[in-house]
Amino acid sequence: MSQVKHDSGMPDVITIDVTRLSPHCPLKMSKQAHPLSIEALFNALGRHLISQCKKLYFRAVESAGHHKRDILVTRVEHARNSLEEAKTQFQTALERFSQLTRFHGGDMENLYRQLKHEYDYSYAKALAVKDRIDAVEDVALALFGEWETELELYSNRSLRSSSRQKLKHTQQHYGHLITAMRKAEHKIDPVLSVFRDQVLYLKHNLNANAIASLEHELRAMTVGVSGLIGAMERSISRADDFVNSLNTIQPKALPTNRT
């Protein structure tokens, strides 16, 4: 391994002879040496470590009797609940926003604190939605990968064919679900951005002009929140459909743990 260093002595590029790496290492690409920046190296190692940690986690929970299918159902339900909570919070925030535009005298500092509280709470709910959707995606990919692999273990062609059909059906339902959830997630940031801008403006302009600005942006926020709530409701419906579809699948069609 050779290193190119700055005057400070810190390496800028690391050259790795990939012929010496294990065939399972995420950095092994060919028999030629490749220069890798430190950032690229740590990113690759980080992704590999995360992947291994996820495998260990699923192995541990499955050894305790919790199969990937059950974990997926639980995580979809959690994501559904998170979307429901976020929907309610954004509705509440919009209502509070609307009330504040009718403000006619009083404590401007208290006005700002109320709006800031609603923004912070909305932001927290938005992060929870993203985390829950990511968790659904993690276990779904693990389940489908295992299911696909274990199709080759069948000796009975009829059972293999039946299981493959159910896999495709489940993947199709999941595709609708994750698409709807990601669409809802992507609609959150634009709404939060408008909300954040108004909170910041009010913070530094505690006067009547700031209230006028809120009134000007209320329509844009109303449209944005309306679209967001619609997307969340569609995601919630998809989540219910997906859970119901999984519950109708016979256990023998799903991959099971090998002892």
Overall description:
This protein is mainly alpha-helical. The chain is built from 5 helices and 3 strands. It has 2 domains: 54 residues, no CATH class; 187 residues. Helix content is 73%, strand content 5%. The protein has a 3-stranded antiparallel beta sheet. A hairpin with a 5-residue loop joins strand 1 and strand 2. Helix 2 packs antiparallel against helix 3. The chain is elongated and about 80 Å long. The protein starts with a strand and ends in a 12-residue tail after the last helix. The N terminus is likely disordered.
Query: Any idea what the radius of gyration is?
Result: 25 Å
- What does the largest sheet look like? 3 strands, antiparallel
Number of domains: 2
Poorly predicted runs are: 1-6, 10-19, 27-33
Features:
5 helices; 3-stranded antiparallel β-sheet; mainly alpha; 259 residues; 2 domains
Quick structural summary:
The protein has two domains: 2-55, no CATH class; 67-253. 73% of the residues lie in helices and 5% in strands. The protein has five helices and three strands; from the N terminus they run E-E-E-H-H-H-H-H.
What are the SSEs and their pairings?
Layout: E1 2-5, E2 11-16, E3 34-37, H1 38-63, H2 68-100, H3 108-150, H4 157-204, H5 208-247
